[in-house]
Write a structure and sequence with these properties.
Order of helices and strands: HHH
Number of helices: 3
Strand content: under 5%
Length: 196
């Protein structure tokens, strides 16, 4: 029995040794697998970083190109707008020139001619009436002078000095009034008719 127990113990030690060797082999295999996994993970990480970087650079490049395209499109649109505005301003100037230099309408020309003729006629009438009035004024003045010479009358027509009246009113003596008889009063003769 002791032999058998020794044999079992030896078998147990051998089995334990085998298990230890297997455990070491499994640990080594696991360690190697972990190293491989870490290496693969690092490679995958680097690959993803590079892919992400490449994608970001591509997106940035696309954004820059799109921005440049939009700017060029905006510049073209603005250029077209400026050209269109210039064309519209030129057209407006042409239409304004046409409007300013348009021919007169026949009815306007006739109306202007009629008004000018009416103005000329009225100016001639005013001039004739002014000349007649001047003639009658001179005629009346001349007749009055002749009458005063013939009859010795010396009327003081149209002279009135209010300051002198106030001074005279302030004095003790009353103002002397002079009765001027109308020329030709009490006589049968009268002035000859105007224009005679």
């Amino acid at each position: 029995t002791t032999q058998r127990l020794k044999q079992q113990l030896a078998d147990a030690h051998a089995a334990a040794k085998a298990l230890e060797n297997r455990i070491q082999a499994l640990e080594a295999s696991h360690h190697e697998a972990m190293l491989k996994k870490d290496d693969a993970f690092a490679k995958e990480k680097r690959h993803l970083k590079e892919q992400h970087k490449t994608g970001m650079e591509r997106l940035l490049q696309m954004q820059i190109e799109e921005t440049i395209g939009l700017k060029e499109q905006f510049d073209r649109t603005r250029q077209l707008q400026d050209m269109q505005m210039q064309m519209l301003q030129n057209r407006l100037k042409e239409l304004q020139d046409l409007y300013d230099n348009r021919p007169s309408r026949p009815e306007d020309v006739e109306r202007i001619a009629a008004l000018e003729a009416d103005v000329a006629e009225k100016e001639a009438t005013v001039k004739r009436l002014t000349e007649e009035m001047q003639f009658y004024k001179l005629e009346l003045k001349n007749r009055e002078n002749n009458y005063n010479k013939v009859f010795g009358a010396q009327p003081n027509v149209g002279v009135f000095n209010p300051v002198a009246s106030k001074k005279a009113a302030g004095a003790a003596s009353a103002p002397q009034m002079r009765l001027v008889q109308q020329p030709g009063a009490g006589m049968q003769m009268g002035l000859p008719p105007v224009g005679a």
